Every structure is written in structure tokens, then in C-alpha cells.
Automatic annotation (TrEMBL):
<keyword id="KW-0813">Transport</keyword>
<dbReference type="InterPro" id="IPR036259">
    <property type="entry name" value="MFS_trans_sf"/>
</dbReference>
<feature type="transmembrane region" description="Helical">
    <location>
        <begin position="265"/>
        <end position="283"/>
    </location>
</feature>
<keyword id="KW-0812">Transmembrane</keyword>
<feature type="transmembrane region" description="Helical">
    <location>
        <begin position="236"/>
        <end position="259"/>
    </location>
</feature>
<feature type="transmembrane region" description="Helical">
    <location>
        <begin position="134"/>
        <end position="152"/>
    </location>
</feature>
<dbReference type="InterPro" id="IPR050549">
    <property type="entry name" value="MFS_Trehalose_Transporter"/>
</dbReference>
<keyword id="KW-0472">Membrane</keyword>
<dbReference type="InterPro" id="IPR020846">
    <property type="entry name" value="MFS_dom"/>
</dbReference>
<protein>
    <recommendedName>
        <fullName>Major facilitator superfamily (MFS) profile domain-containing protein</fullName>
    </recommendedName>
</protein>
<feature type="transmembrane region" description="Helical">
    <location>
        <begin position="386"/>
        <end position="406"/>
    </location>
</feature>
<feature type="transmembrane region" description="Helical">
    <location>
        <begin position="75"/>
        <end position="98"/>
    </location>
</feature>
<keyword id="KW-0762">Sugar transport</keyword>
<feature type="transmembrane region" description="Helical">
    <location>
        <begin position="21"/>
        <end position="40"/>
    </location>
</feature>
<feature type="transmembrane region" description="Helical">
    <location>
        <begin position="355"/>
        <end position="374"/>
    </location>
</feature>
<dbReference type="InterPro" id="IPR005828">
    <property type="entry name" value="MFS_sugar_transport-like"/>
</dbReference>
<feature type="transmembrane region" description="Helical">
    <location>
        <begin position="290"/>
        <end position="312"/>
    </location>
</feature>
Length: 436
């Protein structure tokens, strides 16, 4: 939508939207999302996962409705701020909801579907933006949260939250429905007892009490540092920036390709979708750590090649930036985006999961808002090649961190993961790397 809004001939606004406004539109959603994740952290713990998810769809519907109402600058930026609530809420609540309704053997696959659905939406918008008018695209986007608001009330609340609220029989019924069994089935009873035991061992506490434990307990704090570091790698790999400004990057690349910039961006969306499908099939087969490390390494190499092309031969061999961007986007969707969410939910118990998720998503939103806000001005000042080399450096350094310090969490209990932390040497060199 950005190129169309900036277009002199095809803009739906009263006048072409300035690139500075486009930068604000890209970043303001994540800027608002930074404090909003703590709001959703409170809602998800006090009112339930289900109601929190309904609220995310309501904010997204409000965003698309406001864009349909007006194309003035205030409306475009306000709409993006409103959707920031939905985006941050989705990233806080959806991993929790999926983790708490899924069985251990399919948790990784279901967790990767969060990013798969996001990438499917990106591809849909790329295609709609190329072939439909602005208003038709917005009406289709509006229909998605409205359909969710109509259908999701039929879904159950998570058994873990129902147990936390003291609703044991409702939790039993929800668990039986999710497992396609009778409430009296022994499998349902066994899993319910496991959830009750986990709830007893991790009694509920206030936010700041939980935060104090996160910092004071050595194993939990190490898991927290690892989660923040792989989140840093995920957000500063450059892929999200590339997706937001894909059309502008392809325009800068030029070349003799027959595809328009929007069509080239749609190609990225297809690659992203294929990568997400790969993640869904590989995350349980290969494990979390190998998939995350490999995709981070390949993404870094692709970003380095992309930077070299812009530095040395911009205008020649126009297929090079397309291939490099596709490889980077594929790796991002196949590992860098979905795996950190899975690892995060598998390294913390029910007591800490909501708090950690809120802090991590706030941290991610802050990184992304700054990144999207400064990308276009920075690329203009120092050149695209240097920006891509910075992204490449982050990926390569992160790969080394993943290899040496990130544990494998596939089908392992929290106790097993923390026992691995405690089994290391007393001196914790990972802490020094994280502080650097």
C-alpha cells in the first residue's frame, strides 16, 4: 500500500502521502505496541486468553474501519496506532493460547502456525494491493477480524487458565473437547492432574514479584537472557524491515526484471509462506536449536551478499537482490520468526510465562518501531549496502550465540532444561556475552 499512497497518479488520498508519513505509519504500530503488551499481559492473566484474543480482533477491525473512513494523514497514522494494540496483543496471547491447548508432540508445529498465518496475510495483502483498488483491499482486510469475532466465541478457554480460576469441571470439559475424548477418559484425567500439579508448584504472584524472581533465580534468569537475545536476533535480522519497504528496495534495485516492484514484493510473500510451511514440518523433526541456528546463518550470508550487490554493482544482474532477499525471507519464515516463540513458551512455567511474554514482546516492539522509523532516513544517508551489512553482522553474531548458549527444548521438561543450566560450570560466560 505504501507505493500506492505515495503515487501521484494512483493515490487514494487527496494528495500523495509523503515518505516521512509512510515511515511513521510503519513504526507507530510497534511504538504503541511496546506499552500495550503490558496491558494485554494484565488482561490475559485476569480476564482470560479468549477474551484477550477477541480484543485483538476488535482493535484490528477498528483500524481497517478508520482507514475506510478517511485517507487523511491523521487517520492513516491513528489507524496504524490502533492496530498496534492488536499486533502486540496477538503476539502476547496467541503463543500462550496455543501452548496451553496443544499436546507436547505437536506444540512446535502448532506454534509455528502463528507465523504461517501472519505470512499468509502478508502475501494476501501484496496480491490485493497489486490487483484491487485501495477501498476493496481494505474491505477484505476488515472482513477477517469480523469473521474471527463471530466464530471465536465457540472456542474454549484454555484449561490452564480455567484451573487457575478454580473452574475444575470447566477445565475438564475444555480439555476433553480439545483432545476429542470424553470428560471421564483416563487420558483427560491424567493430563488434568498434571496441569493441577504444575499450578500448585507455581502459585500465582504479582507482576513485580514475578519480575524479581526472574532476576534473582539463576536458572530462570539465564532462560530469560537467552529469550531476550534470540528475540534481538529475530527482530534485527532485517527481514521485517525488508518486508515493509520491499517495493522501495526493488525500485532502488531497478534492473530489467519484468515484474513491477509490488509483484516482486508478492514473490517475497510467496517465499515467506513456503518458509513457514517448512517450519511447520521441520520444527519437530530437526529440533529448535538446529533450525534456528541454520536459518540465522544463511540469512546473515544473504544479507551480506545483498549489501555487496548494492555497494559494488547496483543496476547490473538485477536477479541478485531478488534471490538474496528471497533467501533471507525464506530463512526468516522457516526459523528466525517462529522458533523463538516456541522456545520462549517451553522454557518457562505457567507462573512466569505471561510476564516473560509481555516483556519480550514489548522489547521486540520497541526494536521494530525504532528500526522501521530510521531505516528509510538511514538508507538515504549512508546507503542501503551499509544497512544490509549491519543486519548481516547481527545474524552472524547471533548464530555463534545460538550454537554455544541456546539449549535444545524439543520435548524436554522445564526441569530438564534448567538442570542443563545448573550442570554448566559455575562461571557463566553466556552472561558476559549477553551484557556486551
Amino acid at each position: 500500500m505504501g507505493p500506492r499512497l505515495m503515487s501521484k497518479e494512483d493515490t487514494p488520498a487527496a494528495e500523495p502521502v509523503h515518505p516521512e508519513v509512510i515511515s511513521w505509519m510503519a513504526s507507530v504500530a510497534y511504538l504503541v505496541g511496546t506499552p500495550a503488551v503490558f496491558l494485554f499481559g494484565y488482561i490475559v492473566d485476569n480476564y482470560g486468553r479468549k477474551k484477550a484474543l477477541m480484543l485483538t480482533s476488535l482493535s484490528m477491525a477498528a483500524c481497517w474501519g478508520l482507514k475506510l473512513y478517511s485517507t487523511d494523514t491523521w487517520a492513516l497514522i491513528t489507524a496504524r496506532a490502533i492496530i498496534g494494540l492488536g499486533v502486540s496483543g496477538s503476539y502476547v496471547v496467541t503463543p500462550l493460547y496455543i501452548k496451553e491447548i496443544s499436546e507436547d508432540c505437536i506444540r512446535g508445529t502448532l506454534g509455528s502456525l502463528v507465523v504461517l498465518s501472519q505470512n499468509l496475510g502478508n502475501l494476501l495483502v501484496y496480491i490485493l494491493g497489486e490487483y484491487l483498488c485501495y477501498q476493496a483491499t481494505l474491505w477484505i482486510c476488515l472482513s477477517v477480524p469480523l469473521i474471527h469475532l463471530l466464530l471465536f466465541p465457540t472456542m474454549p478457554e484454555t484449561p490452564s487458565y480455567l484451573l487457575k480460576s478454580g473452574k475444575i469441571e470447566e477445565a475438564r470439559s475444555a480439555l476433553a473437547w480439545l483432545r476429542c475424548r470424553q470428560p471421564t477418559d483416563t487420558v483427560v484425567d491424567s493430563e488434568l492432574q498434571t496441569l493441577l500439579l504444575e499450578l500448585e508448584q507455581t502459585s500465582s504472584s504479582k507482576f513485580f514479584t514475578t519480575l524479581r524472581t526472574l532476576v534473582s533465580d539463576r536458572s530462570i534468569f539465564r532462560a530469560f537472557r537467552i529469550t531476550l537475545t534470540i528475540t534481538l536476533a529475530r527482530e534485527l535480522c532485517g527481514c521485517l524491515t525488508v518486508l515493509h519497504f520491499a517495493s522501495s528496495i526493488f525500485s532502488a534495485a531497478g534492473g530489467s526484471l519484468l515484474l513491477t516492484p509490488n509483484q516482486q514484493a508478492a514473490v517475497l510473500g510467496i517465499v515467506q509462506l513456503v518458509g513457514s510451511c517448512t517450519a511447520s514440518s521441520l520444527v519437530e523433526r530437526t529440533g529448535r536449536k538446529p533450525l534456528l541456528g541454520t536459518t540465522c546463518l544463511v540469512s546473515g550470508v544473504a544479507m551480506a551478499v545483498l549489501g555487496a550487490w548494492f555497494a559494488l554493482s547496483a543496476g547490473a544482474h538485477a536477479w541478485v537482490p531478488v534471490l538474496a532477499l528471497c533467501l533471507c525471507i525464506y530463512c526468516d519464515a522457516a526459523g528466525l520468526q517462529p522458533v523463538p516463540f516456541v522456545v520462549m513458551t517451553e522454557m518457562f512455567s505457567f507462573q512466569y510465562r505471561g510476564t516473560v511474554t509481555s516483556i519480550v514482546i514489548a522489547f521486540a516492539c520497541a526494536l521494530v518501531s525504532v528500526q522501521l522509523r530510521v531505516f528509510q532516513p538511514l538508507a538515504t544517508q549512508v546507503g542501503l549496502y551499509l544497512v544490509f551489512w549491519l543486519f548481516a553482522g547481527v545474524c552472524l553474531i547471533s548464530t555463534a550465540y545460538i550454537v554455544f548458549y541456546v539449549p535444545e527444548t524439543k520435548r524436554r521438561s522445564i526441569e530438564e532444561i534448567y538442570a542443563e543450566f545448573d550442570g554448566k560450570k559455575e562461571k557463566d560466560p553466556e552472561a558476559d556475552v549477553t551484557r556486551l
